[in-house]
């Protein structure tokens, strides 16, 4: 499942060749210490990237910047080699979508699944096309009649499949996945990881994965970047970073984070 056919992504590979990149990015909350300092990280087509680190390392902050939900204090977020600006957000939303950690809170319980999955289409002015909704549900292994039901009728794993269907319905190039399996039981985690790997292969989708689970990282991502206290302390080929880490913090993570096993 690992996309091992691609070379590793170096810190210097931001810019025109990247789908999405952070270039020397820093971010500080008002009145607070810096949450991110001089972070450079690239997402290139077909090369899944993992972002790992303990709670408070800055992973969620960087993800917010990459989603265009906040602006860097210093540095630049680029999309297709050009700075991400407010005027480009609609184009950006069509190409970059997100899946979040909790499949219970991420789906509006008041709406049927068809409306939920069609949300990105409506937001982009593409119309709530039932055929595209059905195709997205099929891609994640759910029947078309799922569209007429409500979130409470589904298990956690099924709800996360619905959230993934919502993310892929507009055929994005990049999926930003924030701990997408951490709220699920072990067997369901394995199935969702398999699903994400299949979607990458079948839909030319590239994932940036935020995860505490280094087993999931090893399954899905070729490149791994390690954040400690808002600084990128190590990055490179996943087999190198996880197999022979150069930084003490990475070695600490390897000793403490549970692995995903079949």
CATH superfamily of the domain at 20-102 and 173-256: P-loop containing nucleotide triphosphate hydrolases
Sheet/helix structural class: alpha/beta
CATH-defined topology of the domain at 20-102 and 173-256: Rossmann fold
**Overall strand count:** 10
Comma- or semicolon-separated keywords:
four-stranded antiparallel sheet, 34% helix, six-stranded mixed sheet, Rossmann fold, alpha/beta
Which SSEs are present, and which pair or pack?
Layout lengths: L19 E9 L5 E10 L5 E4 L6 H8 L7 E6 L2 E2 L5 H7 E4 L13 H5 L1 H5 L6 H10 L16 H13 L5 E5 L7 H18 L2 E5 L3 H7 L2 E6 L2 E7 H6 L4 H9 L6
Parallel strand pairs: 3-8, 3-9, 6-7, 7-8
Antiparallel strand pairs: 1-2, 1-4, 4-5, 9-10
Helix pairs in contact: 5-6
Give an overview of the whole structure.
The protein is of the alpha/beta class. The protein has a domain of 167 residues: 3-Layer(aba) Sandwich (Rossmann fold). The protein has ten helices and ten strands. The strands form two sheets. The protein has a six-stranded mixed β-sheet with strand order 6-7-8-3-9-10, with helices on both faces. Strand 1 and strand 2 form a beta hairpin. The protein is globular. The two termini are 13 Å apart. The N terminus is likely disordered.
